[in-house]
Amino acid sequence: MYTREQVAKTIDHAVLKPDQTMADLKENAQMCIENGVFSMCVKPCDISAAKELLKNSDVKVSCVLSFPHGADATPVKAFQAKQAIGDGVDEIDMVMNIGRFLSGDYDYVAQDIKAVVEVAHQHGIIVKVIQESGFLSLRQIAKACELSFESGADFVKTSTGFGPGGAKPEYVDVMVKTVGGKMKVKPSGGIRDWDTAVAFLEQGADRLGIGSTEAVLNGGTASGNY
Fold first, then answer.
1. Which DSSP string do the residues of the chain spell out, in sequence order?
2. What number is the average pLDDT over the span 102-128?
3. Secondary structure of 113-137 in the HEC alphabet?
4. For the chain, what are the domain ranges?
5. Which terminus of the chain, N or C, has fewer Cβ atoms within 10 Å?
6. What does the alpha-carbon distance between residue 13 and residue 21 come to, in Å, rounded to a whole number?
7. Does the N-terminal peptide bond of residue 44 adopt cis geometry, omega within 30 degrees of 0?
8. How many C-beta atoms lie closer than 10 Å to residue 175's C-beta?
C-alpha cells in the first residue's frame, strides 16, 4: 500500500509541452513544491528558471535532451549535456537515436548514449535513456535496455510522451526482467490516474514520468495525453 507522499517521491513531473509558457513553469514549480514530487522535468531552455523557482525546496530539476526524436548528432547531444549541467540540472533524460537503433546500428546507439553519460557522470548527474518503446518490439526493448546498461546509463525509460504507445505494463516487465537490479526503470507517458501509477511501482518501477501529477495524486483521472 503506497501513501500519497511515497508516490509523489517517485514522480518526475513533466513540463514539456511546446506551448507551455514561463507562467506555466512557475505554476508547475509551485505545485511540485506543494506536493513534494521528486523532480520537475523541463525543456533545456527552462533549466535555469526552474532551478531558481525551486531553489528553496527539495524538488530537483531534471531535463530532456535531444527531445523528442533522439536525432541530434552525437557531439551535439554531448554539448547539450554540458550546457544543461552548466545551467544547474540534477538529472538528464536523453532520447536514444531511435532511427539508428531500428537500423540495427547498435554501435552508433551505444556510443551516442556513452557520449552523454561520460559528460554527465563527471558531474555526478544521472542519465535516463528514453527508448520510445512504442516503436519497438518487446525483444527490441530488451536490446535497448542492454545497450543502455553497457553504455553506463542509470535508468531506462519507456517514452517521451509524444510518440506512440506511452508506458505499458508489458514494456516495464521486459525492462525489469532485463536490467532490474542493475539499472532503474522509469515508465513515462499516459500515466493519468493513481491506480496506473501504483501498478507500475508494484511492477518494479523506480520513478514515474507524469504530466498530470495533481490529478494522479488526488486520485482523479487526468485528461490530455501525457
1. ---HHHHHTTEEEEE--TT--HHHHHHHHHHHHHHT-SEEEE-GGGHHHHHHHTTTSS-EEEEEESTTT--S-HHHHHHHHHHHHHTT-SEEEEEP-HHHHHTT-HHHHHHHHHHHHHHHHTTT-EEEEE--GGGS-HHHHHHHHHHHHHTT-SEEE---SSSSS---HHHHHHHHHHHBTTBEEE-BS---BHHHHHHHHHHT-S-EEES-HHHHHTT-B--S--
2. 98
3. HHHHHHHHHCCCCEEEEECCHHHCC
4. 4-217
5. N
6. 16
7. no
8. 29
Q: Residues with catalytic annotation?
A: 93, 157, 186
Q: Report the distance separating Cα 44 and Cα 41, nearest Å.
A: 9
pTM score above 0.90: yes
Taking Cα atoms as reference points, which of 85, 82, 8, 18 lies closest to residue 47?
85
**Grid coordinates in use for 192?**
493519468
Superfamily grouping for domain 4-217 = Aldolase class I (3.20.20.70)
pLDDT one-digit tens code per residue, 147-170: 999 999 999 999 999 999 899 999
Q: Cα–Cα distances in Å, from 117 out to 42, 45, 130, 145?
A: 19, 20, 13, 15
pLDDT per position as a tens digit, 141-150 = 999 999 999 9
